[in-house]
Each structure stands twice: as C-alpha cells, then as structure tokens.
Amino acid sequence: MRIPTLALLAAAATASAATTTDNNSATDFAGDFTWTNLNLAQFDSTLGTLTGVTITVNSLTIGGSFNAAAVGAPLTINGATGSASIRGSNANLGFTQVDSTGNTLTLSPNVPFIIAEDANQTFDITSITTVTSQSYNIDASFFSAYLGNGSVTFQVRNSNPNVNSDTIGDVTYDRSLASGIADMTVTYTYTPVPEPSTYGMILGGLALAGAALRRRQKAAK
C-alpha cells in the first residue's frame, strides 16, 4: 500500500504550470511631445501563485507623415530618419527601455524632392517595423507591481522625424502626424489553485495512508 498511496498523494499535490496572457497596442504622435500609455492587465492572484512574468514587444513601428514648407526660397528635402521608444511608466515594473533610433525613413514622394518657394509638401512615411518579437523576463523582485485587478502601464513615444534639407530661405515643419505604434503582450506563468477534485484526491490519499498505518499497527501486535 505504501507506494500507491504516496504516488496518489504526490499526483494530487502537484499542480502543473499554467499561463495567461494579455495583449494591447497604442499609437503615439510626435506632435504632442509626450508619452502615450499602453496598458496591460495585471495578474489575478485568485488564479494561483505567480511564478513568471514575460513582456514581449511584438512590434514597434514608425509611420505617419510630416509636412515641410519652403519660405522665401525653394527647399530640397534629401531624406529623413526616425526613432521610437517603449518604456515602463515607472521603475517598479523592472522593464528596460527599448529604443529604436536613427532609422532611415522611406518617403513618398521620393527624395530628393524640391519644394517651390512659398509652397509646402506632405511626405508620407512608409511604415517600418523596427522591433519584432523581443521578450523580456521580469525579475521576481518586481512581481508585486503585476498583481491585482487593474493594469500595468507601459508607454510609447515617436520622436520628431529628423529631416535632412537644403534651403537658403526659411523652412517650417509640421511633424505632428509622424507616429509610433507599439504592440505588446504580457505572459504570466503561475501554479494554479488546486481544483476541488484535487483536494478530494488528497483527502482520499490521506485516508488510505491512515488505514494502511492502522493495519500495520494491528499486525505488529
């Protein structure tokens, strides 16, 4: 009886790891010079004991458009570079900021492009995904920030495109529609709370172990 009983107890007491995920995306426009929030759900501790947190940046994409105006002289647009970033809203999330800098942007119309004196031109930015499927394991010392019924907040930002131009006059730019789009997923690994049937198996195993012990005690007398 000893081996089957111990096996039953071990099977009943051991819970396999489980996972749950949440996904969200957010778009930031360069013109507001602020960070845009991206919220991911916290882990509901009623599900079990949290054992792992993984943050995945599925993609960080630069796109949108900008407008250039030539004032007093023709303006030549030679190209542009762009950047975007993702960070945790505070240091308690244990997430290292992700930066994508100096990316050469493909523009429409094509460059070099000459804008006539006192005219303006809008350039569309061909979307470029600068980060793909990068995962970050969060240290256990930060798990408390991920527990609750609310959300954890990350932030995305698109910096103003850096435009390379030639002009002998003045130039103005409207870069408010240049965008950065972040798509992120949080994955929680946890040990589930045992099902009621599991508790029944444990109690049954204890009962079997007790009965076996009593029989051995009687046999020894």
Q: Explain this structure to me?
A:
The chain has helices at residues 2-13, 196-220, and strands at 18-29, 36-41, 48-71, 75-88, 98-104, 107-108, 113-115, 120-125, 128-137, 151-158, 162-167, 170-174, 178-192. It contains 2 helices and 13 strands. It is α+β, with helices and mostly antiparallel strands and 221 residues long. It is rod-shaped, with a radius of gyration of 29 Å. Residues 1-13 have low confidence and may be disordered. The chain starts with a helix and ends with a helix. Helix content is 17%, strand content 53%. Strands 1, 3, 6, 8, 9, 12 and 13 form a 7-stranded antiparallel beta sheet that branches. Strands 2, 4, 5, 7, 10 and 11 form a 6-stranded antiparallel beta sheet that branches. It has one domain.
Count of discrete alpha- or pi-helical segments spanning 4 or more residues: 2
Helix/strand order, N-terminal first: HEEEEEEEEEEEEEH
Unreliable sequence segments: 1-13
Please give the share of residues in helix. 10-25%
Largest sheet: 7 strands, antiparallel
N-to-C terminal Cα separation, in Å? Answer: 19 Å
Number of domains: 1
Radius of gyration: 29 Å
Structural class: alpha+beta
